[in-house]
Amino acid sequence: MSSVTLPADEDFSEATTSTIGLPQQTTHSKISYLRLLPLAAVAFFAGLGVVLWLGHAGEVRLTGFLRAEQSVVYAPRASRVERVSAKPGDSVKPNQLLVVLADDSLDREIAARSREVAALEAALEQCRAKADVQMTLELKDLDETLHRARLQSAEFLREHYSATFQHITWRNFAKEASSGRMLAIAPTAMSEPDRIFGALASDPVVIPESVRAQAVIRQEDARNTSEVKKASADICDQHIQGLKKLRENLPEKIRKAAGVGVAEAKLAQTTDQLRSLNQQKNAMTVTASGHGLVGSYVKQPADPVAAGEALVIILDRDRPFVEVDIPSQEVNRIRVGQTVRLEFAGEERTGRVEAIAPQAHRHDQSADSWITVRVRPAGKLWPEVPIGSTVSVRLK
Asked: Domain tally for the chain?
């Protein structure tokens, strides 16, 4: 029989090793890769952190607050809040109702002045009625007097013209008689002077000297009568002018005598007071002066308010800004006009430094001092976030 020779133990071990060696190396390499993955991840994030650190090296992060330009509405007088018409956060436009104030004392005063105005109006009407009645009677008497004066003046003028005519006639008669010429007059002309101009004799006669003398006397008498009548007519005219002036001023005098002027003055004064009170009442309806958002109410319904006390704050969303306090030791990092990076609830924006406070301040009892900086929008519009929200500010 043929015999089988088995290798020794050492040879078998080597053979076994040589037979299964390749699979063992593959398993060990997989285990090594798995161990290296965490190390690689750590190295990656460490490198990323280094890059970010280098990118933000020397950067200071601060927390600011979104603000908006605001206007304060004040109470026009001491009163109490009756009701509010707009809620915080509501958009308002010019003249939109915000707050209605109430003042019981003002309402009582308005009611009293209204009653007083009504009473003064009735008294004024009574005075005017009395003045109208008296004016009617006075004007009637005055017009009658004026009419009589005009008639008298007309009569005096008629007599004046008649005497003037006689004066001229007697003057011409005396002139003709003194010339020695024959005159065609009746013999009885001098005894009946009224017929001297109408009764002519058929046969002319010579006028004696006595006739000429009487003609001169009658001439002077006619002249004097003419002057007297003219003076009387002038006096009547002056009287008429006085009556006309009196008639023009009579209505005002009667109004004063009846107390119309005093009643009108009292009514005007009380009406002005009532108008002023109503203006104060209207001013107690507080409205918005422009567009904006209702920020907060300083006073609530039923709260008493003093004159000039704040009622409500109106925010102007069209003019936002960020207000941030920076440590005083970092003030050299910032200047007016500098652009800074901002972060609004995860959204990045830019802003430009508008103002830096000239004086530092402290927070509570801290030993550190801070400087307030105001930042305005620059570049892309800022997101719509509530006023007062925190904003991250990064300074290099």
From this structure: 3
